[in-house]
Protein: Probable phosphoketolase
Organism: Streptomyces longispororuber
Amino acid sequence: MAKDQLSALDAHWRAANYLAAGQIYLLANPLLTEPLRPEHIKPRLLGHWGTSPGLNLVHTHLNRIVREHDRDVMCVWGPGHGGPAVLANSWLEGSYTETYPDVTRDAAGMARLFRQFSFPGGVPSHVAPETPGSIHEGGELGYSLAHAYGAAFDNPDLLVACVIGDGEAETGPLATSWHSGKFLDPVHDGAVLPILHLNGYKIANPTVLARLPQEELDSLLRGYGYDPLHVSGDDPRAVHHDLAKALDRAVDRITRVQREARTTGGRGRRPAWPVIVLRTPKGWTGPAEVDGLPVEGTWRSHQVPLPEVRENPAHLRQLEAWLRSYRPEELFDADGRPTPEVLACVPEGERRLGASPHTNGGRLTRGLPLRPLEDFAVAVDKPGTALHEPTRVLGGMLAKVLADTADRRDFRVVGPDETESNRLGALFTASGKAWQEAILPTDEHLAPDGRVMEVLSEHLCQGWLEGYLLTGRHGLFSCYEAFVHIVDSMVNQHIKWLKASRELAWRAPIPSLTYLLTSHVWRQDHNGFSHQDPGFVDHVLNKSPEVVRVYLPPDANTLLSVAEHALLSRDHVNVIVAGKQPCFDWLTLDAARAHCARGAGVWEWAGTDDGLRDPDVVLACAGDVPTQEVLAAAALLREHLPELAVRVVNVVDIARLMPREEHPHGMADFEYDALFTRDKPVVFAYHGYPWLIHRLAYRRAGHAHLHVRGYKEAGTTTTPFDMVVRNDLDRYRLVMDVVDRVPGLAVRATGLRQLMADARTRHHAWIREHGTDLPEVADWSWPS
Amino acid sequence: MAKDQLSALDAHWRAANYLAAGQIYLLANPLLTEPLRPEHIKPRLLGHWGTSPGLNLVHTHLNRIVREHDRDVMCVWGPGHGGPAVLANSWLEGSYTETYPDVTRDAAGMARLFRQFSFPGGVPSHVAPETPGSIHEGGELGYSLAHAYGAAFDNPDLLVACVIGDGEAETGPLATSWHSGKFLDPVHDGAVLPILHLNGYKIANPTVLARLPQEELDSLLRGYGYDPLHVSGDDPRAVHHDLAKALDRAVDRITRVQREARTTGGRGRRPAWPVIVLRTPKGWTGPAEVDGLPVEGTWRSHQVPLPEVRENPAHLRQLEAWLRSYRPEELFDADGRPTPEVLACVPEGERRLGASPHTNGGRLTRGLPLRPLEDFAVAVDKPGTALHEPTRVLGGMLAKVLADTADRRDFRVVGPDETESNRLGALFTASGKAWQEAILPTDEHLAPDGRVMEVLSEHLCQGWLEGYLLTGRHGLFSCYEAFVHIVDSMVNQHIKWLKASRELAWRAPIPSLTYLLTSHVWRQDHNGFSHQDPGFVDHVLNKSPEVVRVYLPPDANTLLSVAEHALLSRDHVNVIVAGKQPCFDWLTLDAARAHCARGAGVWEWAGTDDGLRDPDVVLACAGDVPTQEVLAAAALLREHLPELAVRVVNVVDIARLMPREEHPHGMADFEYDALFTRDKPVVFAYHGYPWLIHRLAYRRAGHAHLHVRGYKEAGTTTTPFDMVVRNDLDRYRLVMDVVDRVPGLAVRATGLRQLMADARTRHHAWIREHGTDLPEVADWSWPS
């Protein structure tokens, strides 16, 4: 490499290091134009220095790669708690000032940059939505590599660099993310270049990967399918030289692999993609020792290496010496602007890492082509007589989306090996399952360029899809209801990301993350108790109401309507819970659309209240199985107590129950009262944990009269009807609940109550003997 | 191997396969003494055949290993959805009949064994608590290897075999579990023998690991630190021969490694432990083809290979041929008892896998030696004047437990690299951090035999600890509050396990799983929004009330009392939320004990209601930061409205708020009313999401008067007091809430309300300028 290029790289790196340290420490005197005094120092020293010099090094060198190789590059910063580094680079290249014009690229702007960092009302200490050029929050660790692959899918011209910290590398999600290469198509997808940064330490410990003998680490990375390139050292000149060379080799190899695959259309053996293993000291160029203890190159540099700068004059002197060691006077002119040498390797325009449109993916989003739902809807002559598998009906619609995006390639469906099991097999008429390994004659639907993605890791499904959505494309995650809890913490982070993004005018809205939760709690015939958990809805509803949406469509047509809405939405997390087992069709498509638009409504045809303002009782339901049981209970009441005014209410959009001030979909009190009354008994059959409904509705006038049935962990391997009986959600129990709650009915309907209790007894005897459900239940349909 | 041994192994395997298939299909005619007819077949065919022959093979061969090598062995069955296999083996060896005497080891018992499987009121289709010899539910996948290591820690004479399915191997937790060898001490710990069973397919797809070229898989396993031994084939004789040889080699190598380490006390380089890679067809020995499609050796054998046996005579014939192919008449005598040849390799007594005491760990549990809390408690002269870091105080107590179990080695503390950060550093006076890699001079507290376990994977921490507890030992998981959501799904499964175990008289209670959640939502000064999530409590409280306990001790002494209770408890999941930052001491040890025993109580010294039955207002709090704000609010009210009767109630045990019928700790209504009144305003400052309190208390008489403040996702990087202000949990807002809610006060206390609003305005101005909290807040203490 030419000497002046090397020197420019080093100047840029020093400038970034200076700016990173400055953000952690300085409130004033940003250019050190005067000797450092305590009042120049922030009162609270917060942030993470340890990883920052490494991130600065990688950013500096990626700048060069973009220019030299004329490549579109974006980067996912795994150790994103090193926020000061990424902010420093963005400020240097100018993308920060373009995004936040008040933080100018001069001394005044530098002072602002420093002050705002980790300061109340300022910017977060991690890489965050506020950070230009990022799609990856630097808080929770483990998801960088999955995000990087998600960004690379269907972006054939994009190179996604991904810095992986050696701490993060110990997490489970990261450990399995390395296998993503088995799902990346060199023809239609871009490339991922992992840079495993071994600085040796996490918060207070050495890291596992950094302490492995090199041959063992190499063996691991080769086993994951990569070809490692090593760069190690603590002499900046040598490291600059070696890293530039390694990056050139890596990018050349990627280019070669892609060219070969794309010209031959060739599906040879999956290529060994390059990975860079970068070993540099933690907290490199920071204080070597503090108070007699080694800091640089140890875990002690993780956060703030000099903690007492305001109080301890020796620390203050040490900080000044540290900052001056970067020779800021060579890096910034008198006005605080970076010198031409510092900027010599920085790319232009959208090629800058902080300005990549892929990292503000909504800018690239195209509307999803959806055909009219009429093409897929089921005909419903009479409610509750014909059965369909709702997810299979949805599969038809999704297959068309997949087909209609065959050229655009901006829609994917992910799931842990359950597409077929979840009755979405129609998808395979439009695209195969992504797979780069060998394909045997007995295999079905595998394809190197498939856009259905199956891997037995909910973490990978979620991480890939997040990366795909954050870069502006569309998708759906189909998952077993119980096991979506595996990604509870990931969805937390995504919701937080969306919440913060929505407050940033410069971030364009991105397609929503939509879950289809099926194989749900009520139908675990093959699996039983371990597969029964409807609590994801509760988890999600704790989060920012402007982001989260939860739908429980009761049949096939309502599922279609809800899915259409979800797929067209932006910046939401949509949770759709829908069964895959045969389920009664209740609503025509038109009725389904109207019902879903309202989110909750009266099913007049099912009730006996004939337009009364207040019925005797409200039977409410949310979810497919509860809806069936409520309808069966309504039929029993109609038969046995025809004079009772029963209203049937179905809730699709569960947030409708919340107060209007607490969720944008929340009903006003007058709407709620009109549906549920202010003082009549409401027997509510809910799909999940019953107390959720109380949590949502506790402020309503009629809350004292609300009685909720739902899943209460009374599960095992048994029949579908036995499941609802065990949890007191069955039609017979619901009728008993009505009898017990409608004033005056207890006496009048003693016989009916006994009849219901007898039916439950009959059920218990029958399943013990036959192992199947009572014929009267198995063969039930809505009476015409 | 001798021919008759080989033949005995094969007979045992055939018998187990026969019994596994029989469980899936047969309702009667268990020995096929008459031709198979439709009425012999179960009406609902449920279960997983595909993995069963492989599990049977491994079990058969582990039997031999136990005998030949005279070894204590237990096994973790990763593909535990192959429940029929493990049940078959337990029945063959007699441990099943000893556990469930009605399922006798004869034809009648065989019929029972078949009928009960996946039958309502019978046994689950997965390996489950009901299964003798198991510590590992076969439902959710990914945790087998971590459980196996957890079982092996501190069990030097135990060999833990672990069958890992190739589906499960794709999960993140499993992918990182392979690194557990870096934390296993060959001197003090037992050995883990992973058996990676590559049958090639998951539900509907090939698996990643099974399709890797063998050299790549070997490279991966070597990179993980293992030395692979391969066994492949579909010829039973050859596979028996090769597997027996491979197991012999593996066990010999393990014995050698252990002997060497233990005789030399030797801490050489971490050994390469053996792993067996077993490739046999999925659904091996089952139907080769069904309806013209290949089944054996493909994913189609995953569940029930012949689905229409009752309706389709061809399927019925095929089933009969399949079952008869095992030659049951050679395997069972006329009474249905296994022949001597079948049992020739089966071990005796507690050496049988289904009878290992380690798999019913409570039988081995010894009481934890806890010293009197007086040794660790802080002295409290006056409440709210001195500060301690509660977790640091707890650290002193835990250090003694660690020290006092130095010889017994039955207590461990796990955490993701946060022991020191969570102020539990005192632990290192008693034991080091487990670490088998190189140790450098700059490292601190690393030790090959350490019983503090740190790895940056919450999954590993949880999995190891579960395995350790399930085998009867004690432990604690210290974790950042927000990131414990990473293990939401794992704790679900553990709670389900405990719930089912508690219903089995033969399962001895095991030590509870106790979480110390610290670095909580209110004190994320370094990290901000991504690290703020108090929802784990909500998640856990959805689960079985007999298992879950949640404690929010408000200071150091209450934390000690709660921790003591949790560590001595059995069969619970305890969640303790406690801060690590300096926090006021409120209660003396005696007062703390009394308060924690009640779980919730009035702090008379803090209120002004002077024993009134009903005060004007109740200020309630749960959690350390809310307690401080409530006390500060009480002090403000005392100063400005001395005539107002304010009662201060603190809640430590959050389930006390629940109705008595819904949680064993729930208060009776009269108790609740005595604390909170039936009709006075209650302003409740809660640590987490405010609606949780409503969910717990909605049935109480006074619920309409309950007003809860808590975290509502209004987070960022800011100061501690600004966090409570942003979420309306601050002292000033609480006083305003009181003014707004006590009848008649709005007019009387207009001035006070304005004073409070002004204080909030002052706060906003101050932090914007100084970046720190108002001095009046930072320097506040309880007025004496």
